[in-house]
Amino acid sequence: MTATATPRETPDEVWEDMRAGNARFVAGEPHHPNQDVERRHVLAAAQTPRAALFGCADSRLAAEIIFDQGLGDLFVVRNAGQVASDSAIASLEYAVAALEVPLIIVLAHDACGAVRAAIDSTALESPELPSNIWRLIAKIVPAARTVLRESGGVDPRQLDAEDVGIVHLRNTIDDLLASSRLIADAVDEGRLGIVGANYRLSEGTAVPHVSVGIDG
Ligand SMILES: [Zn+2]
Questions:
Q1: Cα torsion 161, 167, 173, 179: sign
Q2: From the CA of 182, how far away is ligand 1's center (Å)?
Q3: DSSP letters of 38-91?
């Protein structure tokens, strides 16, 4: 028996809809879609999320809320500072290969504590971090060093965490593409787009900064 395939949305279509959902959230007019009992029952058989979201674990970045999505809409992977760890990359590969999501949103945010910790760690007298935290933060340090170099070697504590966060966002997407043949191939074949956005805590806006395989 051949199932009738529902045509999947394109990366651009999904991103357009995510932007619309974010605009509803920003305006305080969310629709809260797909959150009822019927939706829960329909999804029990299988999931077909519309996008994967790879974001910082910060409690203020609640993925479904800020994009006004519901149950089964987003495949969410988060860790402190949205660092492209092995487990994050593997989870995103699953979303692309098995669930065939057409879009990965990489979501950073302003005033990120993990980014701040990476910046502070570049100061000469910085205290040692617990080893597991350091392993995570170390992946953000190259972005801090880039911005530090460009600023002519000011005291690291004076660096703007948002500037470093945007560089880290770009680095993270480069890292995903370099570390995962599966993700890079999906982009090359037009099956997957990646948008890197920075979430502004007070406005609630997800501002796109990087896009790959998508008009953005
Ligand atoms: Zn954060």
A1: negative
A2: 27
A3: HHHHHHTT----SEEEEEE--TT--HHHHTT--TTTEEEEEETT----HHHHHH
Compute the distance between CA of residue 10 and CA of residue 15 in angstroms, rounded to an integer: 9
DSSP one-letter code for 111: T
* Superfamily of the domain at 11-212: Carbonic anhydrase (3.40.1050.10)
Which pTM does this prediction carry?
0.94
Q: Give the distance (Å) from ligand 1 centre to CA of residue 63.
A: 13
Between the CA of 148 and the centroid of ligand 1 the distance, in Å, is: 20
Kindly report, residue by residue over 160-180, the tens digit of the pLDDT: 999 999 999 999 999 999 999
Q: Ligand 1 center to residue 42 CA distance, Å?
A: 33
pLDDT at 6: 59
Ligand 1 midpoint to CA 8 (Å): 31
Distances (CA, A) of 64 to 38, 60, 73: 18, 11, 8
Cβ-based neighbour number of residue 89 at 10 Å:
18
**165 Cα: distance to centroid of ligand 1 (angstroms):** 9
User: How confident is the model over 37-56, as a mean pLDDT?
Assistant: 97
